[in-house]
Design goal:
Blueprint (H helix, E strand, L loop, with lengths): L6 E6 L12 H4 L3 H9 L22 H10 L6 H10 L7 H13 L3 E6 L9 H13 L5 E7 L9 H15 L3 E7 H4 L6 H13 L4 E3 L2 H10 L10 E5 L2 E2 L8 E4 L8 H8 L16 E4 L22 H7 L4 E6 H10 L11 E6 L16 H14 L4 E6 L1 H6 L4 H24 L3 E5 L4
Parallel strand pairs: 1-12, 1-13, 2-3, 2-8, 3-4, 5-6, 8-9, 10-11, 10-12
Antiparallel strand pairs: 4-6, 6-7
Helix pairs in contact: 3-13, 6-7, 7-10, 14-16
Length: 447
């Protein structure tokens, strides 16, 4: 039988190529392994934004898009692009699933609640899509439309939320429908690491109308958060009130449209709404909703209606490796586990035949990863080296999360430490693969 050469595909999440300056952590860090390989091994530069990865022009890349394109081996036109096109050609306003939600609410006189990230970051959502929803709601004759605004500050400047809230307010006034009902940072509403204490605060704001802070409108909520020293991402859940009463809690008979098009940070909140066995935190009352519609498939097990179902991808890398009877491993820590599995497999939840998966928990003892820039890279490295001793994998897809997750903090010493951790760990893994006679491919999903 022909011996198969093992291949390592190492994805250094967020390791970009940029001009050397005092704001470039990769340039400032000590990276002897990457420096040596770039000087002595075949290397090239990849474009991971705009149309090269199926995004609109002017749109930066991100982890999800990068892994999807790498795994597919082709340009994959993103949900973001598809939705934009539907708005431009007006097909958006004929969407059957959206129409079903709006028509039901209009007929029953009930409320529709629009949940999602309010920014133009284009990574998880886009404010343009929210405004299109408001336009469609007006066309359908709705009177009660409430926005539960999750603020960004991660894929956008840290204090740009006031501008987005002003843009949303102007759109509501122009269209003639809609009101902001709650405001909170994505840190709370869009957690993906089972930190249910955060999610519970956002849930209580939207459903129970119970929060530490209240405001009379979205702009006031954001401004007050800035006065407290909170950037957009970390705005504490705030309920919008009128005469001391919440203007739009989510109640029995209401409908919800979650307009994030990226799945990973929308799953946990969706679980709370739809899972009667949910036990992450005590739920005082789970509204009996008429409809719960998501923009894209957040998780196949949810069995929810979807406004923009996926376009199936075939003959992707993981599938072809499996079809040839070869073993493969996907390994990452929690923050990037979905990327080397779900996204890399073209939106497929289940592993392919002979596909093993290894998940190492991301640190939970810190609130933000600048406080532990090494994250779980050493644990990922150790687990991979252990598995290589016992398993003849033909393909290993590895992700180191540090550069992306710590880089987002903007804390330069932590970002430098993250880069140096990744360089050290990939050096250990590459050395072992070389000893096994394997091929090492090092890339990034975005910069």
């Amino acid at each position: 039988m022909k011996k198969i050469t093992p291949v390592l595909l190492a994805i250094l999440d967020g390791w970009g190529i940029g001009e050397p300056w005092e704001g470039n952590a990769i340039h400032l860090a000590r990276t002897p392994n990457m420096d040596r390989w770039q000087a002595s091994k075949p290397a090239t530069t990849l474009v991971a934004h705009n149309g090269a990865v199926g995004l609109p022009e002017g749109q930066m890349g991100n982890s999800e898009v990068g892994h999807l394109n790498i795994g597919a081996g082709r340009i994959v036109y993103q949900d973001f692009t598809r939705i934009n096109r539907d708005i431009e050609n007006r097909d958006f306003f004929k969407n059957e699933e959206l129409a079903k939600v709006f028509c039901h609410a209009a007929g029953q006189g009930t409320a529709v609640h629009l949940l999602g990230l309010v920014s133009d970051g284009g990574v998880h959502s886009h404010i343009r899509h929210l405004i299109a929803l408001l336009e469609m709601a007006k066309q359908q004759g709705l009177a009660k439309v409430y926005v539960h605004a999750f603020m960004d500050g991660r894929d956008t400047p840290p204090r740009s939320g006031g501008e987005y809230m002003a843009e949303l307010g102007e759109a509501m006034k122009r269209i003639g429908v809609g009101r902001v009902a709650s405001v909170c940072g994505r840190y709370y509403a869009m957690d993906r690491d089972n930190r249910w204490d955060r999610v519970s605060l956002a849930w209580q704001a939207m459903v129970d109308g119970r929060t530490q802070y209240t405001a009379t409108d979205g702009g006031e909520a954001v401004a007050a958060a800035y006065d407290r020293g909170e950037n957009d991402e970390f705005i504490k859940p705030t309920v919008i009130t009128n005469n001391g009463q919440p203007v739009g809690t989510i109640n029995d008979g209401d409908s919800v449209v979650f307009f994030n098009f990226r799945a990973d940070r929308a799953r946990q909140m969706t679980h709370v709404f739809i899972d009667p066995d949910f036990a992450g935190f005590p739920v005082r009352h789970r509204p009996r909703l008429a409809e719960y519609l998501t923009f894209t498939v957040y998780e196949k097990d949810f069995a929810l209606p979807v406004a923009f179902p996926p376009v199936p991808l075939t003959h992707i890398l993981g599938e072809e490796v499996s079809n040839h009877g070869l073993r493969q491993l996907r390994i990452a820590e929690t923050e990037k586990y979905a990327h080397v599995t779900y996204f890399f497999n073209g939106g497929r939840e289940a592993p392919f035949a002979l596909e093993d998966r290894a998940l190492l928990p991301s640190p939970r003892e810190v609130a933000t990863y600048d406080l532990k820039p090494e994250m779980s890279a050493e644990a990922v490295t150790g687990e991979l080296l252990r598995r290589l001793a016992d398993n003849p994998y033909s393909l290993v897809v590895l992700n180191f999360a540090n550069c992306d997750m710590v880089g987002h903090s903007g804390i330069m010493p932590a970002a430098i430490a993250a880069v140096e951790t990744v360089d050290r760990c990939i050096g250990q893994v590459a050395e072992r693969f070389t000893e096994l006679g394997g091929v090492v491919l090092i890339t990034a999903d975005h910069g």
